[in-house]
Amino acid sequence: MSAREQAIGSWPQSRMRTAIETLKAGSSGSRVFTGSVVMLAGSVLVSLANFGYNIGVAHLLGPGDFSQAAAAVTLLMLASCINLAYQLVTAKLIAKTTIPGERASVYQYLMHRAWLVGFVLSAAIIGASRWIASYLRMPSPTLIVLLGLGMLFYIPLGVRRGGMQGTCQFLRLSLNLAAEAFVKLVVAMALVLGGAGVLGAVAAISISVFAAFLLPAGDAQLRLTPALYKPGSFLESIQAIIFFIGQVIINNVDILMVKHYFAPDAAGIYAAVALVGRLLYFATWSVTSAMFPISAGSAAESDSRRVLVVPLLFVAGLSTVFVIFLSSFPGLVIRTLFGSDFHRAGAGVEQLLAMNAVATGVYAICVVLITYEMSRRIANTGWLQLVVSLLIVLCVSVLHNSLMQVIVIQQVLRVLLLLAVAFPFFRRTPGLREEAL
User: Rounded to an integer, what distance in angstroms lies between the CA atom of residue 151 and that of residue 248?
Assistant: First the structure.
């Protein structure tokens, strides 16, 4: 027996258990940090490509036609709640098992279901294309038909990405997300410059989804002959759908309501401010994506709570730096990104930019806590988020005297959401108390 083995053998069992768990936590924490960095870098590329798409299409098409492309993107964002729900459920169920045959069963079962949902969604959008085009004041239902074709692959794409996320293939996942964004940018520029106009801009969205789906799916174990699979809890899917419905509303409803209640110039300024805030949210969401499968795969509650520390510190630190930067150079940010027309005297853009960044940072921390709870159990925090999103709609519909008031309402409700979802973490469970002793 070596000296190291003798030294380890002399430890009390309680200290031995604590040391092993500490080593495991350190390994998980390192995986979260590494995955967070990879996903964050990928998120930067995706954000740049998406931003380039919006700016490029806007400059080439002009305000009128750009509004048609923006409406198509909004419809895709609404459908993303289903895409992301499939991704989250797939990642969680795959992360919870280490047996290749069972992982393959989970993946192939959910992929089959996703194809059915994608087909139904695509058929529904194409079938209702005339009504949707009329409601959105589009010149032709062809735009909606093009988008509907992309929806056929958009839902199965969520399962593919969930497989990558659940097996912690964060680099492959980041490249897949970036590929979709860059294909959309390049194809849109080529088609619009070639004379396809807004049809080309919308067609590029569906082409990019198809291209991302064609990329390699990832881990070969997900394509093995599946073992007998008993479908997971229906509540797993419900909580994911509820979470992403709330997320879609919180992240998009304010822009739609401001467009309805305010003059076009004011709505344009608010949209620019909100778009800058979205950059912070998408960056922090990449960190949360890295945490989710590792937390779901941790057997011990104490181990997974240690995993939570890394993304919380990461998101809080990133949000703080973001808010300080925007508070220090608001005019420079707005003029550089959108031009001098968006930085008008008396519009209060500086205050709007800083306050919106704070509200986004608060919500980003909420999302970390909510997704952690979802990775461990069937949680009710997704319902809390949905309630808050509906309260935002109600409050803004009643109180909308200024753009700052709209942001303050969201800030107050998001702080209340943070307090609600953080409350369980202030309580120490008996198991953790005994372990500490």
Answer: 17
